[in-house]
């Protein structure tokens, strides 16, 4: 993580773009799961794995999406 010093002397934490992108994709996948849009969620979790291969949240989401698609 990077820190920036602002004019008043405080620190502002910034998140690397890749980490923000991963978080956004995982959140989108979770939202799609709640909406019952399992195929679209599966695609989002696949994108997450492209950003972070082996990501446990993405793997778990893919497994859950697949289970729901098989019903």
Largest β-sheet summary: 2 strands, antiparallel
Q: Helical content, roughly?
A: 55-70%
Structural class by helix and strand composition:
mainly alpha
| Run of helices and strands | EEHHH
Mean pLDDT across the residues is: 86
Architecture overview:
The protein has 71 residues and is mainly alpha-helical. A hairpin with a 5-residue loop joins strand 1 and strand 2. 20% of the residues are buried. It has a two-stranded antiparallel ribbon with strand order 1-2. The longest helix is centred in the middle third of the chain and has 18 residues, at 17-34. It contains 3 helices and 2 strands. The protein is globular and about 40 Å long. Residues 1-6 have low confidence and may be disordered.
List the helices and strands and how they pair.
Blueprint: E1 2-5, E2 11-14, H1 17-34, H2 38-51, H3 56-70
Antiparallel strand pairs: 1-2
In short:
Helix content is 66%, strand content 11%.
Please name the defining characteristics of this protein.
globular, disordered N terminus, mainly alpha, two-stranded antiparallel sheet, 2 strands
């Amino acid at each position: 993580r990077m820190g920036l010093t602002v004019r008043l002397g405080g620190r502002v934490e910034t998140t690397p773009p890749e980490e923000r992108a991963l978080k956004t994709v995982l959140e989108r996948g979770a939202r799609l799961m709640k909406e019952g849009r399992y195929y679209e969620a599966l695609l989002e979790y696949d994108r997450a794995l492209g950003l972070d291969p082996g990501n446990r949240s993405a793997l778990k989401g893919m497994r859950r999406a697949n289970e729901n698609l098989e019903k």
